[in-house]
Amino acid sequence: MPESSYLNLFIIIINDNTMEYTFYIILFIAAVILISSFVTVKQGTIAVVTIFGKYRRLLSPGLSLKIPLIENIHSRISIQNRSVELSFQAVTQDQANVYFKAMLLYSVINHDEETIKNVAFKFVDSTNLMQALIRTIEGSIRAYVATQKQANVLAQRNEIVDHVKHQIDQVLESWGYHLQDLQLNDITFDEEIMRSMSRVVASNNLKAAAENEGQALLITKTKGAEADGNAIKIAAAAEREAAQLRGQGIALFRAEVAHGMTKAAQEMEQANLDISVILFTMWTESIKQFAENSEGNVIFLDGSTEGMNRTMKEMMAMQMQKATDSKK
């Protein structure tokens, strides 16, 4: 068989293989292009599509189609809430160092196309965004703290947060974001300042305790004095009432004695007897009572006839005066 026939056969075989390889290559490229035209966007995310670097459209969560080799996914924007922790230092008006630890919560304002375009193209990447966001918030807090004294900073957490929100909201809106919350979790000072603050608090507590003890002692003494005064008043009232009752008892006793003596005198007059016997009996009974009930050892009495006669006359005069008064 001639050599030319072998050469032609070899060329035919090569051509057939080349066509088969080309077909498979074209089929593979077509499959790749077809697969790349499908795009999956996760929930809570919006995809930004560009054509040759220029903004084209947005893709919502789910399965979407794009033009292969022409449309490109520039970025995927998360519309979920995001948080970042901050730790920085500020200086007060009286040159005291203040150390802050804060938590920042922010998110995309809304799902509008213009908002998403701002988020996607305002910064080169998310790292630059976070750097600008953190530095802006730190600068706002530092500017506010620089106008306050160290003693006022701890009590102005809410004022600091309100100041930052007021200053930062417009800037973040121009970036397409919204500051949802800023929490100042920890505010500390230098160790020396913390010790001095502890001493001030301790001294204030001791002062308050001393004042409370003084007030308690004053109240106790006041209430005690009131109680003593009330006791004295009650005792005086009781004594007055007792004296009144004793006086009434003595008056009743005397009235009964006078009544008995009057009756006895009348009976003796009717019997033509001397009533001085009654006075003598009273005199002797008085001496007997003195002797039995007196606590002393000596009783001085005028026992002479003149003294006894004078005493009887006085008693009789008193009795006659009593009778005259009762008749009136």
Briefly say what this structure is.
The chain is α+β, with helices and mostly antiparallel strands.
Q: How do the helices and strands line up, and which of them pair or pack?
A:
Elements: H1 3-36, E1 38-41, E2 45-51, E3 54-59, E4 62-65, E5 71-78, E6 82-91, E7 97-108, H2 113-121, H3 126-145, H4 150-153, H5 157-175, E8 177-189, H6 191-270, H7 276-293, H8 305-327
Antiparallel strand pairs: 1-4, 2-3, 2-5, 6-7, 7-8
Class of the largest domain, according to the CATH hierarchy?
A: Alpha Beta
Spatial order of the strands forming the largest sheet: 3-2-5
Q: Provide the CATH topology of the largest domain.
A: Tetrahydropterin Synthase, Chain A
Helix-strand makeup class: alpha+beta
Largest sheet: 3 strands, antiparallel
At the fourth level of CATH, the homologous superfamily of the largest domain is Band 7 domain
Low-confidence stretches: none
What does this structure look like?
The protein has 328 residues and is of the alpha+beta class. The protein has helices spanning 3-36, 113-121, 126-145, 150-153, 157-175, 191-270, 276-293, 305-327, and strands spanning 38-41, 45-51, 54-59, 62-65, 71-78, 82-91, 97-108, 177-189. The strands form 3 sheets. It has a 3-stranded antiparallel sheet, covered by helices on one side. Strands 6-7-8 form a 3-stranded antiparallel sheet. The N and C termini lie far apart (194 Å).
